[in-house]
Amino acid sequence: MMACVSLSSPIFSPRQPIVPFGLNSANRRRIGLSPIGFGPIKKNRRARVSVRRADSVVFRNLDADDFRHPLDKQNTLILRAIPGLNELGKALLGTVAEQVMLLENIGTSVLVSKNQLPGLHQLMVEAAEILNIEAPDLYVRQSAIPNAYTLAVSGKKPFVVVHTSLVELLTQKELQAVLAHELGHLKCDHGVWLTFANILTLGAYGVPEMFLHKFIWFLFSFQGDAIGMIYRGSGLGGLIAQSLEEQLFRWLRAAELTCDRAALLVAQDPKVVISVLMKLAGGCPSLADQLNVDAFLEQARSYDKASSSPVGWYIRNAQTRQLSHPLPVLRAREIDEWSRSQEYRTLLSRAIQINTVQQA
Fold first, then answer.
1. Residue 88: pLDDT above 80?
2. pLDDT score at 199
3. What is an example of a GO molecular function annotated in this UniProt entry (predicted)?
4. Could you say which of 4, 147, 317, 349 is the most buried, measured as most Cβ atoms within 10 Å of its Cβ?
C-alpha cells in the first residue's frame, strides 16, 4: 500500500507522480494551488533547531479517532461501503507501481538522519513522539515547487519527502507542522484510498480512467455476464467512474482536515498551522515577514459570508467539488475553530509534559 500527500503547486511534473500537502486538483488534467501560511523567515542565517522544545508534550495513548474530523469519519464509512475497494486498490497498484515511486524518490533525494541534516531529523523524531507513532524516513528533494508528501509501501518503512523550496518558505515550527500533517496520514492509516485519490490527480499519466474502469468492471463481474455487457455497451462505466472519483476527492478533502489537526497537536499553536496554509496560498520568503495570520482568518470569514447565500453556496460547491484539498481559507477557519473547542482542550489535558533542556 502506498499513501501520498502534498502541498501546493499549479503544475506537476511528470517526473513527480505525487500530490502536494496543500495542493488542489480541479480535475484529472489540472492541479491547482492550495495555500497555507505563517510567520517570518530569517534570511541569510543558519537556522537553529532545538533537539526538543522545553515545553514538549507527548500523547502516550493517542488514537487516530481522538482527532479525526467528523467529515473524515463520515466519508470513510461511505468508502468502506463500496465492495472490494480496498482489496482492489492494492491489486491494481501492486508492487510494481510501489517500487517505481519508491526508487524514484530514493534515487533523487537526500535521506535525512542524525548525521545528515540533523535538525530536520530531530523535527521529525519529535513530531512522531508527540503523536505516538514511529518516525518514518525523511527525504529532502530539490524542487522549486513547495511540496511535501508521504509514501507508505507494503512491508516497507514509510517515508516522507519535503521539497527544498518548502524548507526555504517555512520557519522551523511551521516545517514541523507540515511533517506532523504527513504523520497524520500514517497515524490514521489513510492508505490505499489516499493513493487512489492522488493517482486521480495525476491526469497527465492517463492512469485514472484505466484504474477506475478496471475497478467498475471488477464490481460488475460479480453480477453476471448480462449486466457486464450492459456496463460495457452503455457508457455506464464512465458515469460510475466519475462518481467514484468525486467520492474519493470528497474523502481526501476530509482527510486533509484531520491531518491539519495532527499538525496542531504537534505545533500546539493554531497560528503556526494557519501560517503554513497562508504561505502556501500566497507567500514567498521575501514577503514572509509581512504576512498576517489574523488578516488571513478575517479573509476566511469573508469567504464564509460571501458563500452563505443560495447562489454563493452553489458557486462554492462547484468550486470545491473536484478539488483534492479544501480551500486554504476553509482549512484555516477549521483549524482555528477546533483550537478553541472542548475536544482539543481535552486532548491537551491528556498530554504528558516532558521537561527537557532546549539545545541549540
1. no
2. 56
3. metal ion binding
4. 147
- Closest alpha carbon to 7 in 245, 277, 262: 277
CB 278 within 8 A of CB 8: no
In a domain, 191, yes or no: yes
Which triple of cell numbers denotes residue 138? 525523511
Is position 83 within any domain? yes
Residue 36 lies in a domain: no
Annotated catalytic residues are: 182
Which of 72-106 are b and which e, b meaning 16 or more Cβ less than 10 Å from the residue's Cβ?
beebbeebeeeeebbebbbebbeeebbeebbebbe
Contact 25, 322 (CB under 8 A): yes
Q: How many domains does the chain have?
A: 1
Burial class (CB in 10 A: 0-12, 13-18, 19+), 273: buried
Q: Is residue 246 pLDDT above 80, yes or no?
A: no
Q: What is the reported pLDDT for 198?
A: 54
**What pLDDT, in 10s, does the model give residues 96-137?**
666 777 788 788 999 999 999 999 999 999 999 999 999 999
For residue 109, give its domain range.
Answer: 57-356
Which amino acid, one-letter code, is at 217? W
Distance, in Å, from the CA atom of 59 to the CA atom of 348, rounded to the nearest integer, reads 8
pLDDT mean across residues, the chain? 75
Distance in angstroms (rounded) separating the CA atoms of residues 219 and 82: 9
